[in-house]
Design a protein that fits this description.
By secondary structure, the protein is of the alpha+beta class. It is built from ten helices and ten strands. The structure holds flavin-adenine dinucleotide.
Amino acid sequence: MLSNMNEEQETIRAAVRRFAEAEIAPISEKLWEEQLFPYEIWKKVCALGFTGLPYPEEYGGGGGSWISFAIVLEELARIDCAVANSIMANSTVASLITNFGTSAQKEQHLRPILDGRKIGCIGLTEPNAGSDAAGVQTRAVETQDGWLVNGSKIFISNSGNDVTGPVVIAAVTGRKPDGRNEISNLIMPHGTPGFTYGGKLKKIGWRASSTHGLFFEDCLLPRENLLGERGAGLRQTLATINTGRILIGSMALGILQGSLDRSVAYMKERNAFGKPIASFQALQFKIADMATHAHAARLMLYHAAELKERGMPFDQEASMAKLFATEKAMEAAHQAIQIHGGYGIMSEYAVSRAFGDAKVLEIVEGTSEIQRMIISRQLLA
Ligand SMILES: Cc1cc2nc3c(=O)[nH]c(=O)nc-3n(C[C@H](O)[C@H](O)[C@H](O)COP(=O)(O)OP(=O)(O)OC[C@H]3O[C@@H](n4cnc5c(N)ncnc54)[C@H](O)[C@@H]3O)c2cc1C
């Protein structure tokens, strides 16, 4: 499978690593402390073509592979997971519009989020509906003038900043013959009258990624802002989230690799009891575990990405890869702090900042419990 790691992918890895180390690492602590969305970095990653890498060239994307895109996110998250998340959340919107949008929607909403003029948000989660996405309560009523939307969303990445663009929201648009809610996806542009943001949410991880609640009060959307088929909203989102699991897993791999690299370097330079702490077997075992987990996670993630690339089913593999990579990233972030001792607790140290970032990864794009449900459901089917 890793014969697939071709020269192009290695070139992309090297380019993203150089960029992340030169441009993001020096400001990462400031972004974390001040919870700042990095506009300049966003513009640069777009200009370098990282953001739109797997999307159609016709709309400003790079026409590249999903494995290459996974590598981009891994390398960015190795340095700063919040920056990687901005690209990841934007890519969910890009996938939805690419796969289900009309050519007019692609021209109007996809192109600007691939070239960096705007950043996309996915608005699924609500105060009373997260894992249970079918429980969304935001309503969109079809009127003569268009869709009248009322409701709210919470924890929405990329929202409320100066470049926020389209938000794809899931809303109840009616009732199905079996009595269940009919849920559709609609494109809600930033600036729609009646659409407001709550205050910036303060977080223990992904601090440089702007996260807000969204409020819709009698927002009127043109009919043509319906994305794809009416009533297909959850189906569209769930199909897209499968790819998102590979991408979130890749960000976890970045944290795993970063925790390992930083631990190895620190173990060689720090002395205790008259010798480098690298000489203590108790710590050697920790890096051995991190390296093993990173290797296994990489194989699982690239395998899932390769299946996707070939048009084969990959749901189970994506869930397994996401579950494994995120839980091992959390473990690695924990152990990297242990290796750094007291310094590892200080926000000045990247290992400390990665701890909260790793925790978020176990929750988004389906929690670990939800991944285990998906995997076991398929085993028992
Ligand atoms: C920083 C951040 C950014 C985010 N960005 C976005 C975004 O851009 N767009 C978006 O739409 N959402 C976003 N989210 C929301 C995220 O997807 C949800 O938080 C996640 O899906 C979990 O939903 P919840 O928080 O409502 O938890 P709940 O669903 O209430 O879960 C609470 C606990 O119950 C468990 N649980 C739930 N159901 C079951 C079950 N059937 N069996 C066993 N255990 C269960 C869960 O695993 C969890 O442990 C973001 C969240 C965070 C923290």
